[in-house]
Structures are given as structure tokens and as C-alpha cells.
Amino acid sequence: MSIFTTKPTKELTNEELKSLLDGLLIEVSPHALDHLSEGQRKVFKEQELKDMLLKENARKTYLQENLRYSAYFRRPDGYRKLIIELNRNKAVIVTFADTDELPKIRLNDEK
Q1: Angle at 32 between CA 22 and CA 76, to 5 degrees
Q2: If exposure means fewest CB atoms within 10 Å of the residue's CB, which of 22, 44, 76, 106 is most exposed?
Q3: Distance (Å, rounded) from C-alpha 4 to C-alpha 102?
Q4: Which residue segments constitute the domains of the chain, with CATH numbers given?
């Protein structure tokens, strides 16, 4: 039995990420906002997450073993990690998390 994890398997360039997203509708999963309080939800806008994908360049992007993508964007206080699932005609931001620094990831093909 194979369990698909969030382990990164391949690093992507910004051009590759933009190409994957080209022409897709960007949506935010209701699950992505579950961990926010009611007060935070009033301040935090879904459009902010969408704009990150559409208008900013990720510092790092990885394809994960579970076939979702993790993209790290620079924020004033660290980084925001978006988890993105690509479907036939849309990209869904499944969840996000803020982190102080980029993870040090060593892919299997690196020595």
C-alpha cells in the first residue's frame, strides 16, 4: 500500500508554476480558512491568496508526493506557504500556513 505524503519530489521554477496556472480559475477551499478566527476572517481576504498566485513570484515551489504543489511567498514577517491542487479547469488553494523561514529541502536526486 502506498501512502502519498506531502514530501516534495521536484522543485519548479516560477515559469513552470505560472504555466501550470495559466488559464485556470483560482479558487480558495473553505478548508483553507478553517483555522482562522471569526475576527481574522473579517480582516483576511481570499483575494489576497489568489493575488499571491497571480501577481507574485514564489521563492520556492515544489511538487509533492500527493501531487499537490507547495509554493512559498515572501511576507514582511517571514513566508506564506500555499498548498495548491490542480484540477482540470481550476487551481484550488487547499490551505496555507505562515512560517518564519524557508524549509531546507533536499530532493532525492540531489547529492
Answers
A1: 80
A2: 76
A3: 22
A4: 8-99 (3.30.2310)
Q: How far is CA 30 from CA 73, 75, 92, in A?
A: 21, 22, 10
Quick one: pLDDT at residue 62?
A: 96
> What does the block give as the cell for 106?
533536499
pLDDT surpassing 90 at residue 69? yes
Average pLDDT of the residues in 41-63: 89
Give me 23's grid cell.
488559464
Q: Contact at 8 Å (CB) between 79 and 104?
A: no
Neighbours of 42 (CB within 10 A): 9
